[in-house]
Amino acid sequence: MEDKVSWLQNQCDKYLAALTRSNFDKATSGRSSSEIYIGLSIKQEEDDPNKVQLPEEVSSPGPPTSILKYFIHLTKNVDEQIDLRLIDQMISKGADINETDRYGQIVLHQVAKSWQIDVAQFLIERKADVNKADDFGKTPLHVAAAVDYAEMVTFLIKEGGANINAVTKGKQTPLHYAAKHDAVNSVKVLIAHNAEAYSRDHKQRTPLQLAAELDRSEAARLLINLKSDAGVLDNTGQSCMTLLVMNMPPVALLALDQFFIKDRANRRQHFYLNLVQPRTTDFSGSQAKSPLEMIVQNRQLDIIMHPVIQKLIEVKWKLFGRTSVAFMLTLNLVLILSWTALGIASSLPRTEEAPYKFPEDCWRIILIVIALGLTLYQILEEFKEIYQAKKRMKRWKEWRKKELEKDLKYCHPMWPEEKEYLQKGIEDLNKVHSGYFRDFWNIFDWIVYFLLLAVIVTHIADITVQSNTDMHTHHVRIFSVTIIFLWLRLMKHARAIRLLGPFIVMLEKIMVDVVKFLFLYGEFYIPYACAFWIIFGGKVPNMASVDQMLFAIFRITLVDDYGFSDMYNTDAVMAYILCGTFLGISSILCINLLIALLADTFQRVYDNATANAAMQQASTLLQIEEGLSKKRRSKYDKYFQDDCSPLTLFYDDDLTVNQEDDLKKVTIQIKDELDKLMEMLKKNNVQQLLNDMPSKIPKTETPKPSPKKTNRNAVARTEAQQQEILKILPQLFASQQEQRETLLQMNQKLLTLETLILEFERSPVSVPEVDLEKISVQSIEQVQEMDQSAVSAHGHLSADFQSHVTVDIIGRTRHLNF
Fold it and tell me: Cα(65)–Cα(314) distance, rounded to whole angstroms?
C-alpha cells in the first residue's frame, strides 16, 4: 500500500513541479515571460556593474548558500523540484528570505513570475516582503501583472496584502505594467480589486495612454470597455486619441464613442470636440499631433466617418476653412485667367515688327504684371511651406527622441523587451522625413512653376531675337501645354469641396492605373513598332518617318484609319499578320483590360465617396491651419475649449441604424464568452487527469493479523500521505457545476444570435434601433419541463399561451407567461 501511495505522490509531485515553472511561464501575444522579465541576478562584486548576468550564466557549485542562490539554481535547472524543507533549514540557520540581488530584487519577484501560488504562500508565511521594491521600484505585484499571471495577482492582493497602487521610480502602478505588456487577465483582476484606472506615471500617462503608446491593442480595448477616459493628455500635450489612431485604428473607432452622447429624452446630442481637438499651446515646446492629423496621415477612412470627426471637420470648415478655400480658389482662378489671356494673345499674328504697340497693348502689360506677381507670390509660399515642413519635422523628431529617452532611463536591466522597443523607436526616427514631396499636388505645383518659367524665358528670347521665327513657335507651343497644366492645378484647391472631392480622388487613382496599363501596353507596342518599321518603314505614306509610323500604330489600337490598303499593296502577308495580331492584342485585350481597371477604381472610390470627400476636406483644413497665425490659432483653440465642451445640438430620435452593427456587437460578446469557456475546458482537462488517478490504484483489503511485528511508524506515515493526497480531490470536482452552467448560458446566447441572423436575412434594410435585451426566444425545453399538474388543470396550451424565456446578451433569463 505504501508503494502505491508513493507512486501517486510521485505523480502529483511531477505534475506540480511542471505546473510550477511551465504552465505559467507564458505571456500574451505569443511571448514567453522570459522575454518580458529575465529574473534574478546574483551579486558579484568583481563583475562589470554594467553587465547583465542572465540566470543561465550563474553557476552553482555545491549546495546553495542562500535562498536567493538556490532559486537562481532552480531557474537554471528547470527539471529540478523545489525542496521546501531545505528552504526551512536555511531560514533556521539565519538565511535572509528578503536577500536582494544586484538590482534589489528578492526571491518573491521570481516566484511571482511563474511559480506556483503555494510557493508564494510558503515564502510570505516566512516573512517574505510582498511589497518589497527593487532598485527601480518594481514590486512582485508588478512582475505578476506584467507576465499576465492573474492567479498570482489575485493571491498577492487578497492573501499577501500587496499594495495594489504601488508605484515604481517611473510612477507606474501594477495596472500600468499590465497595460503596457498587454496582460489582459491581469488588467481585469486589478480593475476588479479597485486599482486606480486614472493613476498617472512620470509623464502623466494613464494605463490606457501607455497601452496605446506601446501598441497594446487588447489591453487598450479592455480598458476602453471598462470606461477608461480616452481624451486624456500627458505632460507634453500628447493626446491618448492620437496614439490610438496611430497604433490601433479599430480601438480608436471604439474610443470615439466616448465623445458622442445622445440624450434621447431631451432630444439632444453632445459632441465633446474639446477632447478631440486638444489645446497644445498650454504646453511649452510640445510638438504633439492632433488626432485629425494622424487620421489624415494614415488615411483612416473608417475613423473619419465617425460622427465626432465629421462634426469636428464641419466646425473647422465653418470657422476658417470655407473662407480660406474661397480665397485660394479666387486667387488661382485670377492667375489662370491671366496666363490664359496672355497665351491666346501670344498666338495672334504680329502686324508690326515690335512685339508690343502702345497704347493698344497696355492691357497685356497689366496682365503680365498680375500674372508674374501672383506666380512669384505662390512660389514664395511654396518655399515657405517647404521650410516650415522641414523645421516642423526636425522639431518633432527632437521632441519625440527626448520623450523616448525619458522612458529609457526607467527601463529595468532584467526587462530587456521594453528597452529594445524604445531603442528601436529612436532608431526609426532617423528614417522619418518631411512629407512635403509625398503629396502629389506639391509635385504638380512645381511642374507648373517650371513650365511657367520656360514660358517666361522663351518669351524674353522671342522679344530679344525678333528675327528668329522658330523661337516664337517654341514659345507658343510651350505656352499651350502650360495652360493645360494650369487649369488642372485648380483641382488642388477644389478638392476641399465635398461635391468635387471624390471625383478628384478618382482622377488620382486612375492615373496610377494608367501607368500600370502603359507598362503592359509598351510590352506589345515597342516590338510591334520595330516590326512595322522593318517591313513598311519608308514604303507607305503614313510610315515615311519614325514619328509617323509610331502614331499610325497607335491609331491601330483606336481602330482608326491607319492605311491598311497601302501596307497591303507593299506586303500583303505581313500586313495581315502584323495588323491582325496587333489589332487583337491592343484593341481587344489591352483596351478592355484598361476599362476593367478604371471601372474597378471608380467603384472602389465611389463606394467610399463620402469618406474620400471628407478626407480631402480634412487634408486641406490641416494645411490651412498650419498657416494660421498664433493669434488666430489661439482664438480657435479657445472656441473649442469654451463652446465645444460639449457642443450641444438637436437630435432626431427617428433616425434608423443598421442592424448589422448590432449583430457584430452580439457576435463579439458571444466570442468572448466562448473564449472563456475554452480556457475553462483546458484547465478541467488537467484536473480530470488527476481525478482519474485514484481509480488506477487497486482497492486494498483489510490486512490480516500477522505474527510479525507491525511497523506502526510506517502505517502512520502512509495514512498521513493519504490525507494529503485526498485534500486535492475536492478541488478537482469544484468546477464541474460551473462548467455545466456556462454551457447552458452559451446555448442560450447561440439561440439569440441565430434569431438575430434569421431576422436580418428576412429584412436586410435598415430598421429602427432596437433593444437587444428584449429579444425573445421560445424555449421548447421550458414548455416540456412545466409542471404536469398545471397542464392538467388548464388543459392544452394554446399557441398564444406558452412559456417563453427572454435572453439578453449577457446570459440572464426571465420567464414570461402570456
Answer: 72
